[in-house]
Amino acid sequence: MDSTKVTTSESVSKKKGKTKKLKQKIKTDEAPVQEMEQAEIEVTENKSESGACFPPTFSVSEIKNKQRRHAMFLKLKEEKRKKKKKERKALGDQAPPKEVPKTIENQRIYDETTVNPEDEEVAFDEGTDEFSAYFNRLTNPKVLITTSDRPRGRTVRFCEQLATMIPHAHVYYRRGLALKRVIPQCISRGFTYLMVINEDRKVPNGLVLCHLPDGPTAHFKVSSVRLRKEMKRRGKDPTEHVPEVILNNFTTRLGHSIGRMFAALFPHDPQFVGRQVATFHNQRDFIFFRFHRYIFKNEKKVGIQELGPRFTLKLRSLQKGTFDSKFGEYEWVHKVRSKSKISLMIYCLYFFKSSYRWRNLC
């Protein structure tokens, strides 16, 4: 019994000695590994301080996670910006000029119909067109605003707000009368404009603007209508003062005639006491309308407050003379190939292609 106990104790002591040796070996092996890891950590920290280093074939699109990909893209963009800034600072006066960012406006093809307002031919045309009587102060604007048959509440409110914005404007309901019967009555009562607001699915979607008595007549598509109650941080309702009118980017032949048509809606002499401005801004063939009140805070700063309503116009056609849908002569028509026509063409091509294949099979 004693001999067995001694042997077991010796074997246990031998095993403990072996485990101690193994642990010492593992510790000696781990020491250089830990040193290598610390060195790698220091290198990565130095790299992160100097900037992210990636292989030459690295692409941000290879990152699968969307948030990390976006963060990495922003980081690389910021690094490029800082690098360019340092290079420009180092070059000083010899630095190349800054690149102009590409926008839709500066990449547009130059319109050949753009004219110089000081051109003699343009001045002659403006002196003899239908609006010359207004610009020569021979007539004062008087506007009749009406709607399509059976207008809904939103269209009615839109007309009422237009009447508060345009001086000497009156709102009347058609009651089923045709425009050809309305126009002679307007001329006999001294109106210079007839404005018709059309609607579709209870939303205003069209505007017909007819200059009286000799035309022209413009048809616009109306979109993005925002009434006063739908606008945030709007000012109080507009006063009865005559507003100022701003016309932007009406530089082509067609733009000149449309701009003069909008200008003739308002009286000549604005009342600056009211501090109200009506803006027609033409951009990419869309006309954005805004109505503001301004206040001078000091010599350099001006505060503006939108009064409403706001809407966007897109010219569909310009017709000579007063409104005539059947026999009217059009100066300009916006032609767009509709989606239904395109889908019909695709269907016909597919049909002919399939029938040709069937004939070959037979």
Structure, described:
With 362 residues, this protein is an alpha+beta fold. It contains eight helices and eleven strands. Strands 1, 2, 3, 4, 5, 6, 7, 8, 9, 10 and 11 form an eleven-stranded mixed beta sheet that branches. Pfam families: Brix. One of its GO terms (cellular component) is nucleolus. Residues 141-324 form the Brix domain. It comes from Cyprinus carpio.
How confident overall, as mean pLDDT? 82
How many beta-strand elements? 11
Rough outline: elongated
Structural class: alpha+beta
What ranges have pLDDT less than 50 throughout 5 or more consecutive residues?
A: 1-10, 25-33, 39-51, 355-362
| % residues in beta strands | 15-25%
Percent range for helical residues? 40-55%
Q: Summarize the biggest pleated sheet.
A: 11 strands, mixed
Quaternary form: single chain
How big is the Rg?
38 Å
Count of individual helical segments: 8
End-to-end separation in angstroms reads: 104 Å
Q: Which series of helices and strands comes N to C?
A: HHHHEHEHEEEEHEEEEEH
GO cellular component, one term: nucleolus
Pfam family, one: Brix
Main location: nucleus
GO biological process, one term: maturation of 5.8S rRNA
Give a quick summary of the entry:
By secondary structure, the protein is an alpha+beta fold.
Which characteristics define this entry?
disordered C terminus, 362 residues, elongated, alpha+beta, 11-stranded mixed sheet, 8 helices, disordered N terminus
Fold topology:
Elements (H helix, E strand, L loop, with lengths): L1 H49 L15 H26 L28 H9 L3 H4 L7 E5 L5 H13 L3 E3 L7 H10 L4 E8 L2 E9 L5 E10 L17 E5 L4 H11 L12 E8 L2 E11 L5 E5 L3 E10 L10 E4 L5 H23 L1
Parallel strand pairs: 1-2, 1-3, 6-7
Antiparallel strand pairs: 3-4, 4-5, 5-10, 7-8, 8-9, 8-10, 10-11
